[in-house]
Amino acid sequence: xxxxxxxxxxxxxxxxxxxxxxxxxxxxxxxxxxxxxxxxxxxxxxxxxxxxxxxxxxxxxxxxxxxxxxxxxxxxxxxxxxxxxxxxxxxxxxxxxxxxxxxxxxxxxxxxxxxxxxxxxxxxxxxxxxxxxxxxxxxxxxxxxxxxxxxxxxxxxxxxxxxxxxxxxxxxxxxxxxxxxxxxxxxxxxxxxxxxxxxxxxxxxxxxxxxxxxxxxxxxxxxxxxxxxxxxxxxxxxxxxxxxxxxxxxxxxxxxxxxxxxxxxxxxxxxxxxxxxxxxxxxxxxxxxxxxxxxxxxxxxxxxxxxxxxxxxxxxxxxxxxxxxxxxxxxxxxxxxxxxxxxxxxxxxxxxxxxxxxxxxxxxxxxxxxxxxxxxxxxxxxxxxxxxxxxxxxxxxxxxxxxxxxxxxxxxxxxxxxxxxxxxxxxxxx
Length: 430
Known about the structure:
Number of helices: 21
CATH architecture of the largest domain: 3-Layer(aba) Sandwich
Structural class: alpha/beta
CATH topology of the largest domain: Rossmann fold
Largest sheet: 5 strands, parallel
């Protein structure tokens, strides 16, 4: 009969808080979780962090601390019925406490999350939830208000290296020996994930002959390992945010790093192309109008070349944007105009209306309109472009960067002339 063997990650799972690697901000001396263990106390909590950072392990250790019954649920497979069954099991062992650990808790919908609330209030269960998604968006407020959120971080390379070296002593690895460079390659491929590292070690053990590991074996095992990038999840939005902000802060080197990280993680280059095009309007604007065309050309170049050749065009666009003079004047002006437009529906002034028929002309459509090309400066300064009663609000305020510096000077003259003409017109009609 086949008997499943526990994976190395399970065999080496820490049993005490002192054995936990990484997360020193939580398990170090005097830190929150260490204090709970020392005081033999426990409250409902949520562990938020990347995969393989110890969320399940900490839940087990904390439940053992208070000698509680531990019930495990996976929100991927469980439903309200499973929650009810867990409540029945919790009632059956009273007065012993029950810790309900829910992995991937963000996958529960609102009604499923609400099912925990009365039992948290009564103290029947202590809930420990694990999630890779931002709790602010993935969990409802009622559950958040009854739980303390602890943030877990990716495990640092030095801690992973220590774990790897200790793991090599386990009998399941058959005396496998790794060189320093091979160890480094495995740690880098694990990308902050302890479970992933131990999984790679297990696979590598199958290639080793009498404990000897060849470099090509390590390369084979680690090939195709992508860096952490959760499409549509927190990592996704954090990295595109980093790319955008590095472009905005004129840091081409950092911007190219985040571009490379996203492409390396499997992000669709077309998505990046769209966001880069947005950056050209939002953060460069009229300080360098060429930026928009360069980004469009980069997008089209990628569409024609595909990956990986077309990715260079995106890198070219990103580096250009980062080095451009910056202005968000057009972006801010449009937001102000949108706010005014949304306030009410002002009619178009009669002089700006089109009059294609005699009837419309008789109704006053287009009456009083001045054709700007016939004016001395090419501008009819005393003619407003806003609905009646709005005056002349100022939205667009160019910055003293790039081409906008010249635009600002020109616009300052036009606005002063228009203000004077409007004032004179008011006096004339007054």
